[in-house]
Design a protein that fits this description.
Number of helices: 11
Radius of gyration: 22 Å
Strand order of the largest sheet: 1-2-3-4-6-5
Strand content: 5-15%
Number of domains: 2
């Protein structure tokens, strides 16, 4: 029996929803409580292909763009692992997506709202244990009922907080819950039990599609590479960078970080990929190398063996 791949793995999430546009459409409509009168009209995928070198180098940016019948833009992402710079990166890309709607000389009234939908496979806000859906908007601090604009907003869904077996009398809440529960639990080895509790027929179709891509040897291999990269090299490099900052930047850790970034540059990776996970842009990377060279020189003066 084929082992079902995890939808919480960003690679699998993307493969599932770019191959079945109707599933992506229903997912967005459901998690945002969009009514039947305002359902998404079409879906545009920014980068539908996931290149093999992106998987092995561990720097996939999962961006699925959708446009509804009112012109609203949606950015859908699955965040498989937690890293320090996620909030900065998420707002950067949402604002960039919003501003890229206009060409030079066009009027601002052509701008349409941009909405981020981010699924987190970790808990970002531990102090809100019973809340799994957060919506961030531009509001007045002392008067939150005063909305400055809804042109840029971000919805975050913390999947670990989803409790299996919940039932809601409200139809829209039930549809939202079912999709979140599916993403969290679809690979848990009890698909028939899960299917029995869902009312949305499109989730049955999602199970079938997930089973289909899980049976594809090429997809399985790439998913395993991606999972291994996230659990091993990616987390090790990030931990080494953070530990190096906090504890004096040990020579070996900095050397590994520099070598990895140089390898990424030589293989053609963009700085946005590098900054997304490692937190270094071109300027900060140049500074890191200067500090590293100064560190080695200082260690040599003190008769340490530095590789």
């Amino acid at each position: 029996m084929t082992k079902i791949l995890e939808p919480t793995l960003d690679y699998v999430f993307k493969k599932l929803f770019v191959t079945k546009i109707n599933l992506l459409t229903d997912l967005i409509n459901s998690v945002l409580f969009i009514s039947e009168d305002n359902i998404i009209k079409k879906v545009e995928i920014k980068n539908p292909e996931i290149l093999p070198d992106h998987i092995t180098e561990k720097y996939i940016i999962l961006d699925i763009y959708a446009v509804d019948n009112n012109g609203n833009q949606y950015d859908i992402e699955m965040q498989a692992v937690k890293y320090k710079y996620y909030p900065k990166r998420s707002i950067f890309y949402l604002c960039k997506m919003f501003s890229n709607q206009l060409n030079s000389g066009q009027n601002y009234d052509l701008l349409e709202p941009t909405i981020g939908i981010h699924f987190l496979n970790y808990i970002e806000y531990k102090e809100y244990q019973k809340k799994f859906h957060f919506c961030f908007e531009f509001r007045e601090r002392k008067h939150p009922e005063l909305l400055y604009t809804d042109d840029v907003s971000l919805h975050i869904f913390e999947l670990p907080k989803i409790l299996t077996g919940k039932k809601y009398s409200n139809k829209l809440k039930q549809k939202q819950y079912e999709w979140l529960d599916f993403i969290k639990n679809a690979n848990k080895g009890r698909d028939y039990m899960l299917k029995a509790q869902y009312l949305n027929p499109l989730i049955y179709e999602a199970f079938d599609q997930l089973t289909k891509i899980s049976s594809d040897n090429k997809i399985r291999t790439e998913a395993e590479l991606r999972e291994k990269a996230l659990k091993n090299k990616n987390s090790e490099l990030y931990a080494a960078k953070e530990e190096g900052k906090n504890e004096g930047r040990k020579e070996g850790e900095i050397s590994n970080t520099i070598q990895m970034i140089e390898k990424l540059i030589n293989s053609g990776s963009q700085w946005q990929f590098i900054e997304q996970v490692l937190g270094y842009n071109k300027y900060s990377f140049d500074q890191l190398k200067k500090e590293y060279n100064a560190f080695k020189k200082n260690m040599s003066r003190n008769n340490f063996n530095v590789e």
